[in-house]
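Sequence in, structure out.
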Amino acid sequence: MDEAPERWTTTVHGREVELPSTIADVRAALAEELRAAFDAEIGSTPGPDLPLRLAMWALRTVPGAVEEMDDQVDRLRSGDYSGVTVLDDGEVA
């Protein structure tokens, strides 16, 4: 267990930022008023769901990241797929 944690990055406002990627690092990076909610949610999350839940909390450690993600989801839901990269030969739907 001496391996370094996987490096998580995302882009916020056109800039690549590194996110904390361990439970301890995410908790430490959160504002103090969010830590009890984090502890409760992470403590009750089933193992298979943990990576996604932890990633969502990690986004909260970067100002503007959650808002930018929400804006992108809203844009996609409205049918605007500009800037979308398709990873296979399928259509964006």
